[in-house]
Amino acid sequence: MYARSQFLNRIGQTSEIPQAFEISKASSCFLIDQKGNTYVDMISGFSVSNIGHQHPKVIEAIKNQADLYLHSTVYGEHIQSPQIKLAELLTSCLPPTLNQVYFLTTGSETIDAAIKLCRKATGRFEIVVCRKAYHGSTLAAESLRSDHDHNQAFRPLIPGIRFIDANKISDLEFINSKTAGVITEVVQAEAGVVHLEDSYLKELRFKCNKTGSLLIFDEIQTGLGRTGSLFAFQKTSVCPDILLSGKALGGGMPLAALITSKQLLVHFMRQPALSYISTFGGHPVSCAAGYASLKVLFEEKILEEVELRKELMIKILHAPAIIEVRCAGLLMAIDFKNESLVWTLINRLYHKNILVESFLFCPGALRIAPPLNIPIPILEKTCQTILETIIELNT
What we know:
Blueprint: H1 2-10, E1 23-27, E2 30-33, E3 38-41, H2 44-47, H3 56-68, H4 81-92, E4 100-104, H5 107-122, E5 126-130, H6 139-143, H7 148-151, E6 161-164, E7 179-184, E8 187-188, E9 194-195, H8 198-211, E10 214-218, E11 242-245, E12 256-260, H9 262-265, H10 284-299, H11 306-316, E13 322-328, E14 331-336, H12 341-350, E15 354-355, E16 357-358, E17 365-368, H13 376-393
Parallel strand pairs: 3-15, 5-6, 5-7, 7-10, 10-11
Antiparallel strand pairs: 1-2, 2-3, 4-12, 8-9, 11-12, 13-14, 14-17, 16-17
């Protein structure tokens, strides 16, 4: 009780209803509390723990780097091998135009950096963004949120933001000679796993090329294997000018990246120099963890088995209460006929030691996003329990 009391009194809260159970240990797809209760993590810390918790190779990499050095100076001044190794591996998996990495600390920071970069590179002002997208919580990222009821309290927001509807080709007319950049997700996560159609993305790419606007893909939540490919855009026929990554990039450590061409990133170097500075961006321990995590993703062939797990989940999760199941790999939204069922279900499953969540902009859907390598017997048993609980609540 003491730890809970101190947590509520000394730690700044994000809501009035935190789960507030104390973690003592984590392993694979499990979280263990102070009382020894084991929970199945079916949200991966919001798509951070893509290869599970405490992977031995990631922990080994963290320990090895910590023995050598931690922070040396602000990002971009000293040569640090963990940054180089991770940047080399990342860019080797991407189209040749995405050949340089600017390491940062968190996803929201990459959004801020992308806005600064595209405004400086183009000399333009306006940023176009899709409605029902979530890009973070800094003031710049909050300005990209179309939920005005939420961001009303933080106004004035940054100016020059124009909203369009995803998959609505006629809205692309709002991209013009004033547009510095278009920031979009390939799969809108918080909208309840909404795919941007390939035909729409092609038209978007064409419009950006025609107007000289930069196309930025936010893959902070969908990257590093979550959708079954390394990045979701690699399942489409469209390549962005700028790619944003975070969450799972650090293998459980804080790390994010803006990936683009050297030709574009030169704008951060001059007129003025130090156009973007990040004290802890590309922290060597985080980069070591990220490199190890990415190697695990490939060496253990985790990407190849995402589809198998997705199909297993879809096969099990059928009930009269469910309207639709939408998936992007192992990012799943289960839409219910009764919107109020979602929070009751989350709470009931918590008491059955299963952690699931909701979506910001799709209140009638349940979020499921387990580690990509969750053992199949555990996944099957957990999905059966979720199904049984849905049926319980509707009888």
